[in-house]
Amino acid sequence: MSGAGSVMLSGPELAKVLRMVRRELKTIIHELASSYSQHLVASLATVLDNAALSAEATCGCGAKVASIEGVIEAARKEKAEVEKITQREEKRLASLEKPVTSNQLNAYFASVDELKDKKVTSITQLPGGFSKATFLIETHSAPNLILRRDLPFYVSPCSAADEFEYLRALSAEGLQVARPIVASRDSGILGYPFLITECAPGVNAGVLAKENSDAGRNVALQLAAMLGQLHAMDPAAVGMQSELEPEAYMRQYIASWQVLWRSSGGPSCWFVEKALEWLDENVPEDIEQLVLIHGDARPDNMLADHNGNNCVLLDWEFLHAGDPVEDLQYAWQFVEPLIDSASFYESYLQAGGRPHSDKRGNYYRVWRNVRNLICLDLSWAAFSKGDCPSYLAGAPRLLFRRMLREDLGKQMMSLGIS
User: Fold this and answer.
1) What are 150-178's pLDDT values in tens digits?
2) Helix or strand or coil: residue 122?
3) Counting beta carbons within 10 angstroms of the beta carbon of residue 9, is it exposed (0 to 12), middle (13 to 18) or buried (19 or more)?
4) SS3 of 130, please?
5) What is the reported pTM?
6) Is the dihedral of CA 252, 256, 258, 259 positive or negative?
7) CA-to-CA dists, residue 246 to 204, 249, 250, angstroms
8) What does the DSSP 8-state code read for residue 266?
């Protein structure tokens, strides 16, 4: 990759990227319908494997050889090298990407009063999982369960186990969330800290909204109402009260993300540094009161019935105290195609939401991209250092980082940040 703002990859880093894509291809082979498509994907995986070897090998076909014997010897060494690399990678993967098994879960369930009558019938890892791994646990009796487990690296300051108390407090206030059952920080049970909740009914509201405009409008109205309920809560309900004034608290919160980003050991980026500097210098001064902020409120993080009603809001790892405009601006980018702004904000205010100033919106447009870029850089740093050589860490960064940087660049130019 080249060009302004791009990251140049060394041979070993490029090899990891190629193997990452190869691994992802191999995971979907069994889902392909025809034998031809399966063969095509298998062939492509082999090509990627060979390309990775060429990028990483210290000796190989790129080196000049004086004879046919030299070519054969180089090929033999390459074969030995790829076998060694594959064994090393698979061993590391086995230690990091720890499977969740029925035996593990049944043994744990037997030790927990709330789950002692449950027996696992199947386990399915759900797609996504950029900040937590999520599994559907089907059991012999309703309701089924959802397991959220930490990844081998952090892209948010919140562990899955932290979400237990958050969800319990939010549920007590009447907010529609998945009912928490149990959580543990003991990595000896399932490999990493985890949370288990009931599997809430419904379909992905983001997918539904794209397919049915009437349901999409209902989803947008319910999201607005949920944010109104959330912003009406006292942050002390989840232990997030602060003695600081709102401006000082927001500056401290953003600084904590900067520390997290710098501690990752990844390469520095003037682009993000400049945006963080601007955010610190331009914290809004007119925030009247801190409220609870979801941090990733959008239809794709909701479940709904087929009419777009009875919604449940999911994925609370970014919960924090902050400015209500942060949530509203973040949500609006996703619901704008679904509803007019007047109806959206009316639903928000009727549910207890706070009047706010639109002039703070630009600040949080910059912040949302900076925060998400930091998350992607944290996952990439773990991947590139070999701490988590998995497509779960690398793929989000490759897919979304350039898009976020372009969006952030446009915002910075429009605001005169240079």
Assistant:
1) 987 777 778 999 999 999 999 999 999 99
2) strand
3) middle
4) coil
5) 0.79
6) positive
7) 34, 5, 6
8) P
